[in-house]
Design brief:
Number of strands: 5
CATH architecture of the largest domain: Orthogonal Bundle
Number of domains: 3
Radius of gyration: 18 Å
Number of helices: 10
Largest sheet: 5 strands, mixed, barrel
Order of helices and strands: EEEHEEHHHHHHHHH
Helix content: 40-55%
């Protein structure tokens, strides 16, 4: 079992990266959120999970302990494999996922890739008593969004994006990165929509 790999990021793909350590390039599958934080040519340390199948041995990597622990929790649920777990981590932060479970929100979970209503209901039942170890606190990037009353532009952008069907846990991190660069609501909303589209490619 490989606990972690520290090395140079030599390539980034849609759902994976190459991490070179000791002259060996490891293909490691990663979430979209981890991918956004990696820089090709720079060193990184990824916690890893090795999935052994009949036809392949796959590595999954995580920048943070919280994401890694949630991944392990997810794959402990029947019919939730590593691929579906990574899709969940790509679409929702650990704190937002924990919040959805604690509030028993089937609606939020069914918006996740690969999660239908029956799977969402099973997740809520099986995770209800296991999720307590995770603190439901906003991660730093979510705190970066100014309060609505303090930033009218951001507030209007939030309302516009919610009217288009986006959830707060999707909107918050994106506006946190973009809000300071725009002083016009329509331009901020357009930039956020481009970011959503890029994340889902």
């Amino acid at each position: 079992m490989i606990g972690y790999i520290r090395g140079k990021v030599t390539a980034l793909f849609k759902d994976a990266c190459f991490l070179e350590a000791g002259g060996i390039g490891y293909r490691i599958f990663i979430s979209d959120k981890t991918r956004q934080q990696l820089v090709s040519g720079e060193e990184a340390k990824l916690l890893t999970y090795m999935a052994v199948r009949e036809d392949a041995i796959l590595l999954y990597g995580f920048l943070g302990e919280e994401e890694y622990e949630l991944f392990l929790l997810l794959i402990s649920i029947s019919k939730i494999g590593p691929k579906v777990a990574m899709g969940i981590l790509s679409a929702m932060t650990p704190s937002a996922f924990v919040g959805a479970v604690k509030t028993q929100s089937v609606t939020k979970l069914t918006k996740l890739p690969g999660i239908g209503k029956k799977t969402a209901e099973r997740l809520l039942v099986e995770l209800k008593d296991k999720i307590g170890a995770f603190a439901v606190e906003d991660v730093p990037e979510e705190k970066a969004v100014p309060a609505v009353e303090e930033n009218p532009v951001t507030g209007e952008a939030v309302k516009a994006l919610m009217s288009l069907g986006y959830e707060m846990d999707e909107i918050t991190p994106v506006l946190g990165r973009l809000a300071g660069s725009y002083d016009n609501v329509s331009k901020l909303v357009s930039a956020a929509l481009r970011e959503f589209a890029r994340n889902r490619e």
